[in-house]
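Long-time lurker. I teach an intro course on protein structure, and each term I like to show students one example going from raw sequence to a predicted 3D structure in token notation. This year I'd like something fresh instead of my usual example. Would anyone be willing to generate the tokens for the chain below so I can use it in lecture? Attribution to the forum is fine with me.
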Amino acid sequence: MTRPITAGVDGTEESLAALDWAAREAVRRDLPLRVVHAWRYAETLAAADRDTQHRWVSEGVTEAVRAVSERHPGLTVTTDVVEGAAAHALAATAAEAEMLVLGSRGHGRVVGFLLGSVGQQVVAEAARPVVLVRAGAAPAAEAAGRDVVVGQHGGPEDSAATLRFAFETAAARGAAVRAVRAWTLPPVFAYSPGSLKLLDDAGGLEPYEKQALAEALQPWRERFPEVPVAEHVEMGSAAQVLLSVVGRAQLMVVGRRARRTAVGARIGSVAHGMLHHAECPVAVIPHE
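-- Reply from a regular --
Happy to contribute to a lecture. Here you go:
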């Protein structure tokens, strides 16, 4: 089954930037584009009944799609106006998509759903990759020699989905991948005889981390031999190290393992830090 790239729109500058980004990515990957607007009837708009509000929303989506279709005449585009809670509707559409693309903040005329509590919930609950795009994300940055930067952690299986997305995206763009692995000194009590032997065999902590990154990258280097790869291993927190190289990125790719708490969904400190501080688009990939 061919999955579309899905863009959530609400008429804001941010969501239109996300739509443009999604359209360009769909063209690169030769995939259809699905445009979704999630809305709820607003009783406060007393002069407008449900049908009138629905017509407003549909007209706005149609206008946005018309502009995208003119820029990409060969692109197959479908639209959906879905009534209901925005987070639930968008997370549901993500399950059927290659990726879901959203603006990073803002509120629309009828309802806003972008990054904030609802946007965070979508990122945390979506079963597929979610890409967040800020207003003003320039297409020129995608062709300016910048890398697709990806955070890697743990063993090869821990970051497989994240690395796959990064390499597929870089291959579609003719870009390089910059793989980043951050490490910190573990507390003494974390050492075990087995881990000490692994460190000794590797020649120390930093060589061990470099070896771990190389092993995680090896299957993806073999699968995508045309994609140049730079390896970056640095001591520090993952968020700090990734942000230190964000200026080289046309796209930042990070994984997340969502968890539920009494106050709602949490997406992890690394994804949270990238979404709030990275100026380039950020792709958040659910762990498999």
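Some talking points for your students: DSSP finds nine helices and twelve strands in the chain. The chain has two domains: 5-137, 141-286.
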